[in-house]
Design goal:
2 copies of one chain form a homodimer. Chain A is α/β, with parallel strands linked by helices. The first copy, chain A, has 13 helices and 17 strands.
């Protein structure tokens, strides 16, 4: 089965807004075995909306739209689609009553224009909106389905999950999309591809996509099949072979972020962590504490931007900064040691570098970052030259720091959840 | 003039990827006075790509595509468009030579399949790609323009800026899009709209969009006009009236982020800042140091997650935590005072709260955050109840902290750049 998604709304044709609803819809449709073959954004203009739906109906089994169901005159979707299908719009009393009640609940009187939202095309199935006033609509015509959903993500998602998925699954047949995802840190994209291309090119029926983000590579495997067991077997075999090829470079088979994987490792090993950051300005602490329950392993951190505070807060000797420079392996290690000692944590991380755009020198260019991990048998330190702008340098520095932490537990023989399948 | 944008690539129809090239293109086209009326994403399938271009050519002055110009068999755009326009593809020696040279430069030999990228439709203008191997193409047919650009953002953007914009501007006529943007902090969307709706509804020729993000409202004004001076006058008048209505709630007229506005205020007033964070885990320090040159005003910060460290690092009395709780106005103020004293900064900020999802109680629910600013004539403290999940609570807390800083300079009569037009 093939579907196309139409997003309706002039604001989605400005430089400030993207249609992100289609990502949710694509994931859900794929799960039901429905392929998305086209996405389209049109403004609130009658002829544009009409043309988009006319094309959808002429070529796709399912046409699913978001937006344009509000109460104002700009909201045309309902009207245009009814007209296109040659159906009359009738005021639906049950819907009207529902909207009135919704207004009552929040202590306001329904405005007249909201009655527009109760207009339903003949023969359409109303999809109740438990999160807002605009009901959705399900219509069928010559064996094809048109589904109109509201634009606000929470309304759209709830309506899809509660009322659309079950209706679609009945029509969708047995073919499903079956997927796997692996994420890799500490390796460039070209190395990842070189190691795994000999594997994935052997699997014709599986679509492999490699996505590169700063400090992270995602490997997506996708197959369409009616035989779940057989396809699971094939994908598991692929994952096993890729895992063998990439080893501990893979940090998750469960689509977790690196900070969540590190949080698991810290928790499993009953270890605590503290941070002393300079160029990353608190980003590492921020990422470690994004994880709910992080107070179980994160004790605290300092952002010692000035040299004075590097000495005052984590005992970096002023003479060391003088002789090696604030951006040096020595200072990174002193930061890591100092913060660990000051907080009494199991492990300590120190980061110092040149995030840019200013501050670079020929010897210590923008992008140079030293990262140290204290608390293991031996100190671990890495000096990296990261490409890109300030944001990118800072992000990659924290990505490397988290990856050093993750690998520490693997190499030290600690417990870790990352590399299992 | 009307344009539509076609993004070509099956990876853009997965749940992991969005076509973001269209945001750049929309902004640039709008600047040239060209309206974007439709955006479309199609996969690497011959008939889908063909249909998208056929529709584009039939209704839009300009059809502009990204992607599908690579060397592999999946890259169909060139071929499909040539066929659609009834033009033969011919190998272009200059392009071929350019690609060979590019490979030579990086010390590799050109692979045979790259010769595909040198195939150019009869009568097409080649757009040189200074950042990659795939050249772009400019074609005209019956008064309409088709522009094929590569998919990688940096290649596409460079090519547009250097070779497409000047060609389009010659055709675009005199009408331009003229815009203004204001950003507001510290007010809910409904209040903003209530105050400014009486203003913007009076301006028929100006499109006003209000976008709400956590802790921030953006007001976009857009007008299409051939008379720049007259339209500038109208927009300036609108901005002036909106500025009067919203006053110091507006933090920028230059589309700056809040941390950049605060950085300006700190710099203008030769003030320094330090932070003591609990629930925000370093996010405030991270935001303050996103700004290049932040070492001029940011001295340092601590993330004192544990109560012990709140006392050890910034002298919050253990008895105060005991009697008022770690999440309290008193502790927020002690954090702000303590970090200011410890670092010797002009101002200090303390944040403590319940970011969730755990840790809430009936008296101190998830979302409760206390924020204090020390260093002014009198201490400033705010207790807020933020809605949303952990990420959202943390973000809004830092947004409020930055806004308190910004307002401090306004109310204290300091220099600030935020509220001027």
């Amino acid at each position: 089965m093939k579907a196309e998604i139409i997003a309706v709304g002039s604001e989605l044709l400005t430089p400030d807004r993207l249609d992100t609803n289609s990502l949710f819809l694509t994931a859900e449709l794929n799960k039901l075995g429905i392929e998305v073959t086209r996405k389209c954004v049109v403004g609130d203009k009658r002829e544009d909306v009409r043309e988009a739906f006319a094309h959808g109906l002429s070529r796709s089994d399912v046409t699913i739209s978001t937006g344009g169901l509000g109460p104002t005159e700009d909201d045309l979707t309902r009207e245009v689609v009814a007209d296109l299908l040659g159906r009359k719009l009738e005021s639906n009393l049950a819907v009207l009553h529902g909207i009135e009640q919704r207004f009552q609940k929040i202590g306001r009187k329904m405005v007249d224009i909201n009655a527009r939202q109760a207009m339903v095309p003949e023969g359409a199935t109303v999809l109740e909106n438990s999160r807002g006033t605009a009901p959705g609509l399900w219509m069928e015509s010559e064996g094809r389905v048109v589904i109109l959903l509201p634009g606000p993500p929470i309304e759209m998602q709830t309506m899809f999950a509660r009322q659309v998925a079950e209706r679609l699954v009945k029509r969708a047949g047995d073919v499903r999309q079956i997927t796997r995802e692996l994420r890799v840190a500490g390796m460039p994209e070209s190395d990842v591809d070189q190691r795994i291309a000999p594997i994935y090119t052997k699997y014709d029926g599986v679509n492999t996509t490699i996505l590169a983000a700063p400090g992270e590579i995602q490997i997506h495997l996708r197959a369409w099949s009616a035989d779940r067991a057989a396809t699971d077997k094939i994908l598991d075999e692929m994952v096993e072979r890729i895992t063998l090829a990439l080893g501990e470079n893979i940090f998750t088979h469960q689509a977790q972020t690196l900070e969540f994987v590190v949080a698991d490792a810290l928790t499993l090993n009953r270890a605590t962590i503290s941070t002393a950051e300079s160029c990353t300005g608190g980003l590492l602490a921020e990422r470690l504490t994004r994880v709910p329950g992080s107070s179980n392993y994160f004790l605290g951190g300092v952002v010692s931007y000035s040299n004075t505070l590097k000495s005052a807060w984590v005992d970096v000797p002023a003479a060391m900064i003088e002789s090696h420079g604030a951006v040096s392996a020595e200072v990174a290690q002193a930061l890591a040691d100092g913060i660990r000692r000051r907080t009494g944590s199991t492990l300590g991380i120190g980061i110092t570098g040149v995030a840019g755009p200013g501050g670079g020198t020929p010897e210590k260019p923008v992008g140079l970052v030293h990262i140290a991990l204290a608390g293991g048998k031996a100190p671990i330190e890495r000096g990296m030259n990261f490409p890109g702008d300030r944001d990118r340098v800072r992000w990659q520095a924290t990505q490397t720091a988290l990856d050093m932490l993750r690998r520490y537990f693997i190499y030290a023989g600690g417990k870790h959840s990352g590399a299992k399948s």
